[in-house]
Design brief:
The chain is an alpha+beta fold. The chain has two domains: 34 residues; 102 residues, Rieske Iron-sulfur Protein (3-layer Sandwich). The protein has one helix and ten strands, in the order αββββββββββ. Strands 1-10-9-4-3-2 form a six-stranded antiparallel sheet, with no helix packed on it. The longest helix is centred in the N-terminal third of the chain and has 28 residues. The structure holds FE2/S2 (inorganic) cluster. FE2/S2 (inorganic) cluster binds next to loops. Keywords: 2Fe-2S, Disulfide bond, Iron, Iron-sulfur, Metal-binding. It holds the Pfam family Rieske. This is Rieske (2Fe-2S) protein.
Length: 152
């Protein structure tokens, strides 16, 4: 006669094994089904910077004036409208220690307020201590939609 509070070793292993197997099967089915369901709206992700802004939108109006500039913080890009009505976009983080740079319309260049490095309109270093250029981006402007597109 067996004691009710004990379980046969074979039965115990069978129960544990079935429970473990069920858990593993569920995990496998879950992960398999997650990776095999295709995205219904696939978006090509090239990893390259490409965004647009409306210069009439609140916060972007500095670009409505020649000589104005705007830092798009979440993209780490500074966009400038030159006095000659050209568009420039470069990376906004100084290559020395990462301080956000400013645009100087009169000299058509960029100044880092931290240690006064300067960069040309193409992003080249014109005054140290920065030694690496800024990344220059392409810019197009649509007068119909008042939209600037910045892209690599
Ligand atoms: S952080 Fe820009 S010059 Fe030092």
């Amino acid at each position: 006669m067996t004691n009710n509070s004990t379980i046969d070793r074979k039965d115990f292993l069978k129960q544990v094994g079935m429970g473990f197997g069920a858990i593993m099967l569920m995990n496998c089915l879950q992960s398999c089904s997650e990776t095999e369901i295709p995205d219904p709206n696939p978006m090509p992700n090239t990893g390259k910077l490409d965004f647009s802004i409306d210069i009439t939108a609140s916060g972007n109006t500095a670009l409505q004036t020649k000589g104005g500039f705007l830092v798009v913080s979440d993209k780490k890009v500074i966009i400038a409208r030159t006095l000659a009505d050209q568009w420039i976009a470069v990376s906004s983080a100084c290559t020395h220690q990462g301080t956000t740079i400013n645009y100087r319309a009169n000299s058509n260049d960029f100044l880092c307020p931290n240690h006064q490095s300067t960069f040309s309109a193409t992003g080249a270093v014109t005054k140290s201590p920065a030694s690496s250029p800024l990344t220059k981006y392409n810019v197009t402007f649509s007068a119909n939609t008042n939209t600037i597109r910045v892209f690599e």
